[in-house]
Amino acid sequence: xxxxxxxxxxxxxxxxxxxxxxxxxxxxxxxxxxxxxxxxxxxxxxxxxxxxxxxxxxxxxxxxxxxxxxxxxxxxxxxxxxxxxxxxxxxxxxxxxxxxxxxxxxxxxxxxxxxxxxxxxxxxxxxxxxxxxxxxxxxxxxxxxx
Length: 146
What we know:
The chain contains 5 helices and 5 strands, in the order αβββααββαα. By secondary structure, it is α+β, with helices and mostly antiparallel strands. Strands 3-2-1-4-5 form a 5-stranded mixed β-sheet, covered by helices on one side. A hairpin with a 5-residue loop joins β4 and β5 (110-117). The longest helix has 16 residues, at 5-20. The protein is globular. 20% of the residues are buried.
């Protein structure tokens, strides 16, 4: 799935608005993750905190009435790219670290962890780890044969 610049801007605007809901001057920063819910039929993007409080929502016109079976897989790179493009905002939200941006389904089940924000931890994507299990099995088989 490809996305237009307008789609990226809409999602980035929603992420900025969600981040603005957390007061940087607050004495006690909340401990929460940020949940992104995409509704395939209406093209709606909703952003929530841990308590299912809606922070913001927007409609992504390109996603309206999208019936692709792999829709949730296809939107993940777009959402990740938006998070990275406004890294100065998404990695400096006034909430306690570590926190994550998580893609959830309509029943609020976790579909994918999109981005982890922490000073010391790096999240390795599934693409980088692809085939690691096979490599380790081959290594173990070779080692045990000696």
